[in-house]
Amino acid sequence: MKHLLAVSICLVSLSLGAVPPQQHQVGEKNPPPLPPLQGFLAGSAQTERQWEEKFRAIPNTDNLREYMKLMSARPHHVGSPYDKQNAEWMLSKFKEWGWDAHIENFDVLFPTPKERRLELLEPTRFVAKLEEPPIDIDPTSNQQAEQLPPYNAYSIDGDVSGPLVYVNYGTRDDYEQLARLDVSVKGAIVIVRYGGSWRGIKPKVAAEHGALGCIIYSDPADDGYANGEVYPRGAWRNKDAVQRGSVTDTYFAGDPLTPGWGSVPGARRLEIKDSPLITKIPVLPISYSDAQPLLASIQGQVVPEKWRGALPLTYHLGPGPGKVHLVVKSNWDTKRLYDVIAKLPGAEAAGQWVMRGNHHDAWVNGASDPLSGMVAVLEEARALGELHKQGWRPKRTIIYAAWDGEEPGLLGSTEFLETHMEELQQHAVAYINSDNNSRGFLRVSGSHSLERFLNGVAHDIEDPEKHISVWDRAHLLRIADATGAEVRDELRKRADWRIRALGDGSDYASFLDHAGIAAVDIRFSGEGGEGQYHSIYDDFYWYTHFSDTQFIYGRALAQTAGTAIMRLADADLLPFDFVGQADTIKTYVKELERLFKSQQDEIRERNLELQEGVFSAISDPQKPTQPPARMETPPVISFAPLQNSSDALQKAAQRYDAALKNFPAGGFKANAATLTTLNERLYKSERLFLSEKGLPGRPWFKHQIYAPGAYTGYAVKTIPAVREAIEQYKWTEAQEGVTTVSDILQKEAASVNEAAAQLEQLISAH
Amino acid sequence: MKHLLAVSICLVSLSLGAVPPQQHQVGEKNPPPLPPLQGFLAGSAQTERQWEEKFRAIPNTDNLREYMKLMSARPHHVGSPYDKQNAEWMLSKFKEWGWDAHIENFDVLFPTPKERRLELLEPTRFVAKLEEPPIDIDPTSNQQAEQLPPYNAYSIDGDVSGPLVYVNYGTRDDYEQLARLDVSVKGAIVIVRYGGSWRGIKPKVAAEHGALGCIIYSDPADDGYANGEVYPRGAWRNKDAVQRGSVTDTYFAGDPLTPGWGSVPGARRLEIKDSPLITKIPVLPISYSDAQPLLASIQGQVVPEKWRGALPLTYHLGPGPGKVHLVVKSNWDTKRLYDVIAKLPGAEAAGQWVMRGNHHDAWVNGASDPLSGMVAVLEEARALGELHKQGWRPKRTIIYAAWDGEEPGLLGSTEFLETHMEELQQHAVAYINSDNNSRGFLRVSGSHSLERFLNGVAHDIEDPEKHISVWDRAHLLRIADATGAEVRDELRKRADWRIRALGDGSDYASFLDHAGIAAVDIRFSGEGGEGQYHSIYDDFYWYTHFSDTQFIYGRALAQTAGTAIMRLADADLLPFDFVGQADTIKTYVKELERLFKSQQDEIRERNLELQEGVFSAISDPQKPTQPPARMETPPVISFAPLQNSSDALQKAAQRYDAALKNFPAGGFKANAATLTTLNERLYKSERLFLSEKGLPGRPWFKHQIYAPGAYTGYAVKTIPAVREAIEQYKWTEAQEGVTTVSDILQKEAASVNEAAAQLEQLISAH
For an interface test with B, which of A618, A619, A620, A622 has the most B Cβ atoms less than 10 Å from its Cβ? Predict the structure, then answer.
């Protein structure tokens, strides 16, 4: 008997540990109507599922269309009357839907064009048009009086002349190659194509290399006829369409005059000349019809093959003989922002805030960017308001935001965050962002503690065209795109798909990078929706002809993000997961080791080739190239602290995960106060990734796992203190970064361990 | 004492085995003035070196320029008066330089244009120009009366109309992708760009897929302004320049009416309709200015990114709406070829022939193709004649050839070879080919039994611009171009650089592929020399402005090939090496195993993805794609016979190599008859690679190690009976190929063993 009893106990404890709750209930004769929900006690999971299903039935594509039509009817950039009008209209809607809403204002620096001139002086004369003409068939394209003309916000004022040099995408690598090709941009004006990096990086790197001015254009190879028929016949950028955009430097986000504090009316402000965000040289964006005569005027060496665009000419490097005169002057005015903030109060844990946002300002009419995402957010709010009327009461407080001033530099979200920093760090559970949305596949990026949770949500949303789950569709795309059997193997074995890390590019950045609030970005894309980025033609006519024309992916976005918000707001135990987080961090550590090794190997190889005479042997005397500079071989960097600390985090994560498996098993009623404390520890775990001193040279960026690259802008650099140091050959700084990040990982591990202990206690107390 | 003695003997035998002869002679107080020469006895090596140095001082760049100016003065295609005149002029020069020379004639099928018409019928009308206009500054570009207009020789006559489909390079992979994109070419006329495969493959594959006609054009991305300024401002193809060329199928080389036998006047001939070489559908080449309206008329899906060309339009797949009418008619005449054959008789082994050739016919004026190589060959002949006058007497007979009719299909060389097959197989030691030559790096391809020998030659030639050896320069380029540390490591450790295997594209093909005569192709390239391939602008003005303008690489080519010819003609023991050959063959065997594995893996993966629903999940309903067909997983193929036979060859090669190291050691006088027999075995070793039945489906191609691909044309397929079968999913044929090739490798191994035994005996007899 003793023996048999022992076996039976063992079986029970196994099933407690490993089997999902509903299967467990089979024995209790409650057939499982729905799959389990992480973090929900057995009873509440059923209720949650029912409310979520009601929720997902509400969003309506006609509403999405109507919101977009209304909000994109006129240009609504920062400071425009229609920007304010949209904010006020949204405020009234939130209120109508039962939300506690208000508008919060900030006063920010927002330069607008005063003078823009670009002319080719030699060898022929040509004056750039710098205009986007109206198109008859497109009813909002003729609102010139209200449109912001093509320009790059925060370009310094300037009046410069010089020979042209073509610098490809204008990345640091491009300039290295230029040096090898013996071309200097000193005293020249660079012409650079959009792509390859965030646009603000282009004038920054150009200025670092001695250029006097910077002209950015959209090459049809990247963004024009090479990709498809041009507007209005097709979706793609036509010869006159220009990409506007901000070109601030990457030191911090938000108002360039209030780094780290809120630009509330009357706040202290830097002088414009003292802001490190303003460019060092004047910058102007142009269309490819304006670029073509400039590019045709350049001679000198023919560009490397990968630098070729799709204009019908031979791309040369220069300098000159083409010489241009560039004038850029702005009205350096302060403009008022209108952030719309709406709340549904939490019934049980009102001090825990689940946040959601999208920006509402645009460069011009902005149907795709940002309204395609904004209208989904509004429809979510309407649906949640509807549920609330029907009696649903979220445990936690839900806050929806429609940010203003995202386009110039994440102004609305950053100034809000900086103003409310303390309370947000205390209360914010997570922030879910979206922005422009189109057709295709669900793309999720963000904090890896929410990876498992978001995978769970994605399983519950149906793709509107394929009628499989959006998880399945995204998973199968990953298999299709995978290179190599090893990658596919992992995709097939891993329960969750990996989510990408966040860099920069929308309003999540300040939440995550500056405040350590777990953040994710959710959108659908991959099947169209490109082609008019930041031009006047990104409007209702274009969107309803060439993007998510039926608004079914807009509805899917509302369903996905709304489900996530509800689940976060209602969970008994917040669905943070550290196993996926630790696993991801371990892949970063491996990447860093490989990166360092490859930098070492490259330097050694280059030095050997210099010694062998490779570079002089392959230099064509008719197109001479310069050998690269000799570098010292890097000293050894020890990655052991990172390996040890990520191991510690993994171990703690596994302990927490083991405890978690027992959490909902018995359907016990946990002590509410204890749960609240544990939940607070969970959502504050992301704060532990902050370092007070911030990243080397960028103190505003405090997160030590994720940051936009100092020289990529949009693209993320994970464990940036180490990665960027290695990339830039700063070996001492890299070793220091290892120490900083390892300490932080140890703290995170300790906290996760503590959370596991609390959870174990909770369960054993039951 | 006994112990010491043993050590001393051991040292001596080591030095006998491993140290080069001149170092060995140090002890004999003959300081080595020059490095060793493989295959030369100690005394003859010195003499050889002295004659070679004299030889290399003779070639003169002014002569090269004068020969080219004269021979390119008028169009000299097959059947033209100037083709004959050039042949007769060369004959007179060979004679003047002391050679025993004659002209050998063949009568071959050579169609020339009778009617060419191409018009766009819908949606707009456009008539293609099909002409290359004269350019004022270029004095030979106005010889319209004598020029062959742009056409593809051996296109079948036809008059067809149909919608256009764009098929990229028109390879089999491209059609597979088209099928996935749900586009068929049945009943359509394909428009295909030059590149990616030999041009004859394009109509072949198009016809296999049901197309009615084929238009081939030069896209500026591959061959036009994207690469550099266009002619006459720069070297590159301008909007009107057209690439002519033959489009025969790949069953055999030579006259399409005399497969396997010589087209001597009066020979038996197939009927034209029975020749498998004529295309199945009409084909016409056009310029990119003629192509642009046609491409602009195509709608339907936008092409995959890699299919985009550089014309300023959106490339679509079609079919239509653009519809064209294509008419191609030829005069199907027989034309006379003029091969110039010149001999310097061998003094000791007159029955062993060392051969050298280049073609002299062109599509039009042909300064680069073929005269840049032809004039170097002539200058070699003058220099060798000069040495002969000074008393130099080659051991072996040297035969120089200026081939006619290469452009239409290697006619002159193939008909010569087929006519003299028996005696060439008996007497030919090796054939060294060249063709167009430009600036840059020495490129050597060919039989790997000559790899070590040609590396030795390359060490002795100075690069005219860098003043390092052409070996060093080519070696350093390989390091610069290498991808990965492993490849660079091998490059640095291996004494010889690897030479490439030969496919098709010039007159070496019949020698190697049909007759098993060891062949190599030598040329300089990599720094210009492109841009006017097969257009009227490939002329003296173009060459002397944009290619090897000083003719210094022409001189280097004469020095390189002439040195190789002299060394082959004078060696006591022919410098064939089997270690490099076996090593190369073993790399091919490994490639085949990897290829099979990857085919297996791909099929398994594809089947799994079909089952998972990957293809339907990623198909955009607005741009639907078709899933690929399910395939059976391939059965296991045993590569053991290839592994064993290549091991056997390697072992035999090492044995021969060990014997070889002792060959010149003592400076012994070998028995001349024995050496002659051994030499004959050596040069006939390449014959052993032939199989009487030839390749599957291509019996004329008998070589089992090298062949042009049936679906690549130019590009080589090594061990083709196995490789092409695997590529085409013919598993049984692949296993049969393994058996055939393994048997052949065993025969080669046995012969090399026998050669080693003979050499060992020779040395021990000394």
Answer: A618
Q: pLDDT tens digits, residue range B614-651?
A: 999 999 988 989 999 999 999 999 999 999 999 999 99
Question: Could you give the CA distance from residue A549 to residue A559 in angstroms, rounded to a whole number?
Answer: 18
Query: Which chain B residue shows the shortest CA-CA distance from A489?
Result: B605
Which residues in chain B are contacts of A233 at CB distance < 8 A? none
Residue type, B543: Y
CA pair distance B559, B455, nearest whole angstrom: 14
Q: How many CB atoms are closer than 10 A to CB A47?
A: 12
Q: Do B617 and A311 touch (CB under 8 A)?
A: no
Contact: A614, B314; criterion CB under 8 Å: no
Which of B499, B451, B452, B464 lies closest to B478, judged by CA? B499
Report whether A325 contacts A345 (CB < 8 A).
Answer: no
Q: Residue B520's beta-bridge partner residues? A: B432, B446
Return averaged pLDDT per consecutive 10 residues of chain A, 766 residues in all. Answer: 34 28 40 68 89 98 98 98 98 98 98 98 97 98 97 98 98 97 97 96 98 98 97 97 96 96 95 96 98 98 97 98 98 98 96 98 98 98 98 98 98 98 98 97 98 97 97 98 95 97 95 98 93 97 98 98 98 96 98 97 96 96 92 94 98 96 62 86 98 96 96 91 97 97 98 96 78
Strand partners of residue A281 = none
Which position has the token pair 């106005």?
B142
Q: B535-576 pLDDT, tens per residue?
A: 999 999 999 999 999 999 999 999 999 999 999 999 999 999
Residue A184: phi and psi, rounded to 5, are -110, 150
What does DSSP assign to residue B298?
Answer: B
Q: Return phi, psi of residue A431, to 5°.
A: -125, 125
CB A515 within 8 A of CB A447: no
Residues listed for chain A:
766
Contact B466 A617 (CB under 8 A): yes
Tokens of B564: 């190789």
B307-311 long-range Cβ contacts below 8 angstroms, 24+ apart = B307/B166, B307/B168, B307/B174, B308/A226, B308/A310, B308/B221, B309/B193, B309/B219, B309/B220, B309/B221, B309/B222, B310/A308, B310/A310, B310/A312, B310/B219, B310/B220, B310/B221, B310/B224, B310/B225, B310/B226, B311/A312, B311/B219, B311/B220
Q: Which long-range contacts (CB under 8 A, 24 or more apart) does A584-590 make?
A: A584/A448, A584/A451, A584/A498, A584/A501, A585/A448, A585/A646, A585/A649, A585/A705, A585/A719, A585/A745, A586/A646, A586/A650, A588/A705, A588/A718, A588/A719, A589/A639, A589/A642, A589/A643, A589/A646, A589/A719
- A contact residues 6-35, partner B, Cβ 8 Å cutoff: none
Residue B762 confidence (pLDDT): 84
- Residue B657 host element (H or E): helix B640-662
- Residue B357's SS3 state is strand
Cβ atoms A298, A147 nearer than 8 A? no
In this predicted structure, the answer to whether residue B669 has a pLDDT above a threshold of 80 is no
Give the mutation candidate from A229, A314, A463, A550 for the B interface (greatest B CB count, under 10 A): A314
Cβ distance of B225 and A440 shorter than 8 Å:
no
Q: Please report the ipTM that was assigned to this predicted complex.
A: 0.92
Q: Do B477 and A617 touch (CB under 8 A)?
A: yes
Q: Do B485 and A612 touch (CB under 8 A)?
A: no
Query: Chain B closest CA to A163's CA: distance in Å?
Result: 20
In tens, the pLDDT along A432-481 reads: 999 999 999 999 999 999 999 999 999 999 999 999 999 999 999 999 99
Ordered by where they begin, the domains of chain B are 2-53 (no CATH), 60-108+335-468+500-570 (3.40.630.10), 112-332 (3.50.30.30), 579-765 (1.20.930.40)
